[in-house]
Fold this protein.
Amino acid sequence: MRYDPKKPQWDGRDYFILSKGHGCPALYTVLAHLGFFPKEELNHLRQINSLLEGHPVNKIPGIEATTGPLGQGLSFGNGIALALKMDKKSNRVYVLLGDGELQEGQIWEAAMTSSQYKLDNVTVFVDNNKLQQTNFVRSIKPVEPIGPKFAAFGWNVINVANGHDFDEIRDAIRRARKTKLKPTVLVCETVKGKGVPFAEHKASYHGVALSKEEMAEAIPILEKELHQL
């Protein structure tokens, strides 16, 4: 992605929209490490009068759209992408959706729009971890098969077998950039709570703060994985 932490509104930037806004702690961490705001802000997440709220808001440097109500991110992205096309700009738009979020009808209205206007500057990532807030996605409202559904709406579909493999994701993004006259969706197979054994595949850890004991177990594991990247 093209970006400038010192000029968050730079006209030449690419756009990233976290449609599954509840995943914002991960996004905030990335933005802080890129220099969009001081890392110390991460210590004040969701505190009164702090910069970092519980869902992304566009007052935060690096945040392009306020997201919280699920299903709206792709519509935001389409609007930006269509404007870029009209202005003959090469900027690209990336949108991250949750698999449970695909239960929202607005997603599919937006998917039709992306295809209708041939928005090949739009790339969607689906975090297909098969869990949502209270249960497995299939137990609440099944959304599979995801790839064929997007294909039926006129999208280019790329399946990412390991959504935790950055090399595989980068390769898929390069393929998406070469696709013309179609938006692209990357269906990424992921594991909720990846790397932390007691939290993997468990909906009960959706949006829940870890205890001190759980933190003591999880942090060394995650630090080790980060050093291997």
The mean pLDDT is 95. Residues 15-190 form a domain with the Rossmann fold fold (CATH 3.40.50.970).
